[in-house]
Amino acid sequence: MNGRSIGLLVGVALGFAAYFGGFAAFLLVGSLGAVGWGVGAWLDREGAAHLRDLFDRERR
Fold first, then answer.
1. Which residues cross the membrane (predicted)?
2. Quick one: how far is CA 43 from the chain centroid?
């Protein structure tokens, strides 16, 4: 899936949230989407990442 397709899906999801749920739902969907994007980017960068690696970074 390329960036344009993902952007289209995110836009449609935010549009539905804004139309049916109002501004609060729009913000909730947007913030959860940003968290999901961050986790996905972290998993892509780290490969097979483990949750323990998140918290053990200071010890390295």
1. 6-29
2. 12
d(CA 54, CA 39): 11
For 1-32, b where at least 16 C-beta lie within 10 A, e where not — what string?
eeeeeeeeebeeebeebbeeeeeeebeebeee
Whether the model clears a pTM of 0.85, i.e. scores above it, the answer is: no
Cα–Cα distance measured from residue 44 to residue 48, given in angstroms and rounded to the nearest whole number? 8
**CB 29 within 8 Å of CB 13:** yes
Q: Which two tokens stand for residue 36?
A: 């999901």
Q: Convert the pLDDT of each residue in 14-55 to its tens digit.
A: 888 888 999 998 888 888 888 877 777 776 676 555 666 666
**Looking at the chain, how many residues does it have?**
60
